[in-house]
Amino acid sequence: MEELVGKIGECIERGKVNKSSPYPKDMQGQDGTDELTRQALDSGVGPEEILQACNAGMKRIGDRFSRNEVFVPELLMAAKAMNAVMAHLKPYFQTGTVKAKGRFVIGTVAGDLHDIGKNLVAMVIEGNGWEVVDLGVDVKSAKFLDAIRQGPECTVGLSALLTTTMANMSKTVQEIKTQFPSIRVIVGGAPLTQRAADQMGADGYAPNPQGAVAFLNAGRQK
Amino acid sequence: MRSILNALKDGKILVSDGAWGTMLQERGLEPGDCPELWNVTHPDDVMAIAKSYVDAGADMILTNSFGGSPIKLAHYGLQDRAGELNEAAAAISRKAAGIDRFVLGSIGPTGEILMMGQVTEEAVYDGFRIQAAALKKGGADALLVETMSATDEAEIAIRAAKEATGLEVICTFTFDRTVTGKYRTMMGVSPAEMARAVKEAGASVIGANCGNGFDQMIDVVKEIRKADPHTPVLVHANAGLPMIEDGKLVYKETPQAVAAKARELAKCGANIIGGCCGTTPEHIRALVKELKSL
Ligand code: B1M
Ligand SMILES: [Zn+2]
């Protein structure tokens, strides 16, 4: 069983989605995350344990991306493999076998269409037991505010990848804080820094999904 | 029909124009607005930008149609107006350029990643065909498939543009320097791989645009030239990377700094030189002054 879980993590890192997927070439015909997750669940492995292995796999491919050893296609295939896992695990979160820790609203800010990083963050946070509401890309302040109104017990995450859209992010943070002073807002994305986050008036900044999870979990204990 | 290849004969260096996106923002384009819609809602502003580059002395100007493929326009619900918006873009630049300067119809990526299966090759091809045909109808002399990062999408765009119009097609990719000092697009494509793929697809001029400024562009041109010594090369370099200072966006490379590097770019093998994000008519004026004295 140990081995099965390890294999799932490896398939995430390699972007092996399912048996019929032609990618990666050297794994053709082998089981992917889709089949392996089913097998693991059927043989009694817990969803949390599977998730942990997935997050470790995502972290490894993320680190290789940062070192420019792999590029966007490899990262996207890993995300796709992760999605296949999540499809099997979702029922467990929804039936309350694992109870949602809270609601997390996330989106990429106005003018910005980058969503790879945002999707990864959403996936990892969902995998950590939160209900995630993904508003997509190019999300204007009004849309964030609407989502908050629909369920004010939430935390909001904003992502931006362009220096040019950091200004929009700042505006959105301020509008949320003005209308909903108690809502906690976390920001992230490649051009951001803790300092930029502080200047915007955000409650938190995370350089990676793990940091965002830590922020959310810490907020829960308060 | 006017040919850019002909104009480059005898080793002539041509100067292209500078940024459009950042210039539109200065004129009030808000984040989240559709730049191509301005061709019909703010034609005077678009014309002013086109004219500013003609006045700066550029041999060719682009069109305000970078995001004009139906797939990209769908983001604003404007997919059905692709023909109208692209034709208007080309007509404005044609009017500004007059008869002695070239108009390059700008075609940017769809923003979708083909290998992920979010869009079909057919949809991408059909969309680029519509865009290219409209740009020709509005008066473009050639088409510029730019800011590409994946060879599959670039090849489809080049084929669609050629098959729809018969015009010369130029194709440029955007390269970043990796931590090991190599140049790759975000999809992992090297300058050599780009050169081979886009030539095979039918591009007559190849090159690079956007990126991290003029210095790195010199390295990129060297790499393209190593792989392909003969095909004409076009570069549109950024005025450095954008930075935020006092809450305002600035690009650091000055017209003087850029002009100083243009000579080196030409020496390394670039045949057409212009600017991308952050460059202004002042940058182009400086390039013209520097390069026309060669
Ligand atoms: C809420 O809490 C949190 C917490 C953590 C959070 C968080 C939120 N959000 C992210 N994180 C963090 O966790 C994630 C996982 O570790 C991380 O997310 P990241 O998003 O940082 O990391 C991802 C996992 C992987 N990284 C990425 O996905 C970004 C990769 C690069 C290559 C990139 C991509 C893929 C794209 N691009 Co764009 N692109 C580049 C990028 C260059 C690079 N090599 O990084 C960058 C960001 N792009 C750039 C540019 C200029 C552009 N892009 C554009 C377009 C695109 C594509 C559409 C082609 C594509 C996006 C596809 C998509 N669906 O997302 C254009 C803009 C479009 C727009 N309006 O948004 C365009 C303007 C290019 C053009 N001229 O058209 C540059 C920005 C320069 C700047 N600083 O402003 C750029 C750095 C490339 C470069 N060197 O020039 C962390 O930041
Ligand atoms: Zn640019």
Give an account of the 3D structure.
The complex is a heterodimer of chains A (222) and B (294). With 222 residues, chain A is an alpha/beta fold. Chain A folds into two domains: 94 residues, Methionine synthase domain (Methyltransferase, Methionine Synthase (B12-binding Domains), Chain A, domain 1); 118 residues, Rossmann fold (3-Layer(aba) Sandwich), CATH 3.40.50. Helix content of chain A is 55%, strand content 10%. Chain A has nine helices and five strands, in the order ααααβαβαβαβαβα. Chain A has a five-stranded parallel β-sheet with strand order 2-1-3-4-5, with helices on both faces. The model of chain A has no long low-confidence stretch (mean pLDDT 91). Chain B has 294 residues and is α/β, with parallel strands linked by helices. The longest helix of chain B is centred in the middle third of the chain and has 18 residues. The two termini of chain B are 28 Å apart. Chain B contains twelve helices and twelve strands. The radius of gyration of chain B is 17 Å and the shape is globular. The mean pLDDT of chain B is 95. Chain B has a single domain, classed as Homocysteine-binding-like domain (TIM Barrel, Alpha-Beta Barrel). Chain B has an eight-stranded parallel β-sheet with strand order 1-12-9-8-5-4-3-2. In chain B, strands 6-7 form a two-stranded antiparallel ribbon. Chains A and B meet through helix 4 and helix 7 of A and strand 10 of B. Bound molecules: CO-5-methoxybenzimidazolylcobamide (B1M) and zinc ion (ZN). CO-5-methoxybenzimidazolylcobamide sits at the interface of chains A and B.
